[in-house]
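Researcher: Please predict.
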Amino acid sequence: MYPEDALLPLSGLQHLLFCERQCALIHVEGQWLENRFTAEGRVGHERVHQGGGRTAPGVRTAYSLALRSLELGLSGMADAVEFHAPGPEEPRGVAWRPFPVEHKRGRPKKNDCDRVQLCAQAMCMEEMLGLAVPAGALFYGTTRRRQDVAFDPALRQTTREAARRFHELVESGRTPVAEYAPEKCGACSLEPICLPKKTDGRGGVQAYLARAMNPPLEAPE
């Protein structure tokens, strides 16, 4: 269990799984730049995070729900949580079932970063409410479709491991060296700070000192 003052932003799990260097630049060094993609995502989340709720037959939706888990050492906010009414076959007094829905601006991703972030929200709710949260959904703005996510044991273990690595990274106070990957770096708003093409292991202090101690020979006149 983590103390209250050691909780890290839940959203950092997505940064970690996308790129550990990006995660450290944001959560260790406090760096941030915005580009079109981050601006569109921020505007989309501002619309959802206006708070309040909505009621429909059999479903109550809460927006901007504050979350916390001492087990994972995370805190944050859920975009939306739907509470589904018990079915008619269920006994009286059964609680409404939480179903988190996370909004994303783009398309479904190939890696687990979005699913892990959503699973962490579910695990926070389970700890806070004492209720099972077996599934949720990701809503992608480009496709305008939901992608259902089951919080199975494998995804939960991946989420716990990501939370542990996130804490270790922040506690180390170190930023990993860059590893240039066109499919990631081209869309990253921190690329002008990270400079992955110049610092991806071919550079650095050791390489600089080696060049300084062994300058190239001058061409004869």
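Model: The CA atoms of residues 171 and 207 lie 27 Å apart.
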